[in-house]
Amino acid sequence: MSKKLTFIALVVSLGGFLFGFDAGIISGVMSFAGPEFDLNEIQSGWVVSAPSFAAMFAMLFSGRISDFIGRKKTLLFVAFLYAISAVSSALAISYEMLYFARIIGGVAFGAALVLAPIYIAEISTSENRGKLVSLQQLNIVFGFFAAFLSNYFFNKYNGVESSSLTDETVWRWMLGVELLPAILYFVFLFFVPKSPRWLYLKGRFDEAKEVLTLIHGSERGALEIEAIEKNIVADKHRAPLKMKDVLKPSLRFILVVGLIVGVLQQITGINAVYFYATSIFKQTGIGTDAAFSSGVLLSTISVVFTFVAIYLIDRMGRRPLLLVGTAGIAVSLLLCAYGFRQATYQVSKENINQFEFSDAQKLLPLADIVYDNDVAFKSAAKEALGNKVYAKNDGAILEAATTINANLILIGILGFIACFAFSLGPVMWVLLSELYPIKYRGLAIGVIAFINSLISSLVQLVFPWELSNLGNALSFFIFGAIALVGFFILLKILPETKGKSLEELELEFVKN
């Protein structure tokens, strides 16, 4: 595998880094922006889920747009939108402005997450396609790591004497720092060639051959050219592509497989855990500072196990990684549900007197009452303090009141993240980039990614309401039960795609 090929794949997948960075950043931002704008659970959910809501429409159309104007041009526009979103989010003066700024970022997320695996698959060989497409997921988790580390330091120095960081400004810095990687992404994309398979699709054969030779060298480049040209001869008499063509009987099997994997990736709650990581760790009573540092640990685990996926995906295959990972996700989430179910909540008079916020005495009617679930305790605390005061001090309150096996919850969360990082996270995008013929690839991946992002945005939107009204235990039990059902479905239908060219996979899975 040439250095040129690796460099190109890394640059194109930097859009994933920006996605992960924004997703990780928002978990810390809401601890400050939520109280400042006095957001309720649904409003907080809208701010967090806004990018995914916008992304689902971008995912639906970005593949087709790139079929017309090219993968590279579309990615350059994506990088520009990332920069606009970072600046406007940091300067937001209202809930509405913050929401719409994140909508802009969502358009960029959606397009980048679809186009990167398409582009990388189209420049890769069958031997290294899995690991190269997985670089997007690696960049996503590096983005999470950078965001959680950034949040940790911003939170650490927030309020320090002579510092410009305050509760009112720190979240703006958290959001604005995303501008730097967005600019780097935009600049590096100018060093990336156009997709050779897209060039063939447009009849620009000489230009495509030059790109393939540049990337792979003359010998391997010639083999890739031969495989693509055989496919083009078989494809040239087919009718023009229409939206309804993805529903053809010949594509039914691979469409169903893609939809199931795409839905399962999000409906098990991965973005709820990532986007609300700080809030979830606060629920264990470990405190605000520890919640921010736990986010760094979470993202470190993501990075480590994404490397595991990159190492194994072209050795072990896609099917074993997905099956083992999905089973591990189910066990980990059910472990979290069990841990939260055993928790109790009780705040003493001594705790109340030690709280540093001014309205703490309003909690005295709750003193020494034992609550056996988090919903009842949080509802009573919000009623006593008001939503805004509680939201600003929930870390300290829960730290004092919660009796729980926090290590058990941490093991469950980290287990979930680890299993996702070597299975559903990277493998889904690899599968989607492999299963569909080049003629249908942009459209089919766009449709599945639309459903994927729709599920993601709904999970993120509802999750704060779930924690507030259903509680931690039931919320995690629902995710775990869904993962368990998903495991048995994948066990029955999931194919293996490793070690075959895109053209060979088309012959195997597309029924004429």
Description:
This protein is an all-alpha fold and 512 residues long. The chain has two domains: 3-341 and 407-504, MFS general substrate transporter like domains (Growth Hormone, Chain: A, Up-down Bundle), CATH 1.20.1250; 344-403, no CATH class. Helix content is 77%, strand content 1%. It is built from 23 helices and two strands. It has helices spanning 3-12, 14-36, 41-69, 71-90, 95-123, 129-157, 170-176, 179-188, 196-201, 205-235, 252-267, 270-275, 277-283, 288-312, 318-341, 349-354, 374-385, 387-401, 406-421, 424-435, 438-469, 472-493, 502-509; strands spanning 344-345, 402-403. A two-stranded antiparallel sheet has the order 1-2. The protein starts with a helix and ends with a helix. It comes from Polaribacter irgensii 23-P. This is Sugar transporter subfamily protein.
Summarize the structure.
This is Sugar transporter subfamily protein. The chain is built from 23 helices and 2 strands. It has 512 residues and is an all-alpha fold.
CATH second-level architecture of the largest domain: Up-down Bundle
Across the major sheet, the strand order is 1-2
Strand coverage percent: under 5%
Q: Return the structural class.
A: mainly alpha
Tell me the domain tally: 2
Q: Percentage of helical residues?
A: over 70%
- N- and C-termini, Cα separation: 34 Å
CATH class of the largest domain: Mainly Alpha
- In CATH, the topology of the largest domain is named Growth Hormone, Chain: A
**Would you identify the CATH H-level superfamily of the largest domain?**
MFS general substrate transporter like domains
Task: Kindly provide the radius of gyration, computed on alpha-carbon positions and rounded to a whole number of angstroms.
Answer: 24 Å
Order of helices and strands: HHHHHHHHHHHHHHHEHHHEHHHHH
Regions with pLDDT < 50 over 5+ consecutive residues? none
Total strands: the figure is 2
| Shape label | globular
The main β sheet shows up as: 2 strands, antiparallel
Distinct helical segment count: 23
Global mean pLDDT: 82
